[in-house]
Amino acid sequence: MKIILGNKRYSSWSLRGWLAAKQSGQAFDEMVIPLRTPEWQEKAADPNVMPSGRVPTLWDDGIAVWESSAIIDWLAERHADRGFWPTDEAARAFARSIAAEMHAGFTSLRQQCPMDVLAHYPSYRLTDGTQLDVERIVALWSEARSRFGRNGDFLFGDFGAADMMYAPIVMRFRTYDVKPSGEAQAYMHAVLDHPWLVEWCAAAAEEPADWIIPAYAEQAAQYA
Ligand SMILES: N[C@@H](CCC(=O)N[C@@H](CS)C(=O)NCC(=O)O)C(=O)O
Description:
Blueprint: E1 2-5, H1 12-24, E2 29-32, H2 38-44, E3 57-60, E4 63-66, H3 68-78, H4 89-104, H5 107-112, H6 128-148, H7 161-175, H8 182-193, H9 195-205, H10 214-223
Parallel strand pairs: 1-2
Antiparallel strand pairs: 1-3, 3-4
Helix pairs in contact: 1-3, 1-7, 4-6, 4-7, 6-8
The structure holds glutathione.
Glutathione binds at residues 6, 11-14, 35, 54-56, 67-69, 103.
C-alpha cells in the first residue's frame, strides 16, 4: 500500500488520508510531493500517481482511491475490524453525518484559515462566517463526546473516522488561537497528544525550507 501526500505542514486532506492508512494497521509507503512546485505539476499530471490531480491518493493492490472520504471508506471496508466507524447504529449515523458535513462544508473556515501545523497566530481575528463554522464544529464535538464518547477521549470513544476528518480542524484551532472550553477543549488536547498527530507534526517540521509557501509565511509574519 502506498499513499501520495502533499506537504505535511499544509495538506489537510492528506492528513485525513494518512490517518486512515495508519488506522488500517497495514504497512504503507508514503510519497510526499511539495505543493506549488514543478515536481507537483509533473506528478499531478500523471494519472499513475494521482488520477484526480490531487492528494491524498491511495494505491492499494494496484487500485487507486482518491478523495479523503473514499479512502476512509475503502480502508474501513477492507479492514472492518479496525474500528473506523462506531458499531452502535445511532453513534454511526452521527459519525457519518458529521464526517460528511466536514467533507462538504465549513468553507469559510477552510478558506480563511489554511492548515499550517507549524504556525501560531495569536492575534488572528476570525470573520463572522468563520466564527459560525467554529461554533457549529464545537457544538458537534460536544454533542458527540457527551452522547457517544464516554468510553474514550475521542468523538466516539476510540479514535476513528470522524476524528480523522476533524484532526485538521484541531490543527487549525491551535494555529489560529481558537480556544473552546469544556468537552471541545479536552478533545483538542486528546487529538494533539495522539501519537499519529505527534508523528505527523514532527515530520512536517523536518520538511525542507524551500517547500515553504511564501503566502503562508507572509501571513505568519503578520499575525505572529
Ligand atoms: N476533496 C478532496 C480534496 C483534495 C485536495 O484538494 N487536496 C489538495 C491538498 S490539501 C490538493 O491536492 N491541492 C492541489 C491543487 O489544488 O492543485 C479530498 O477530500 O481528498
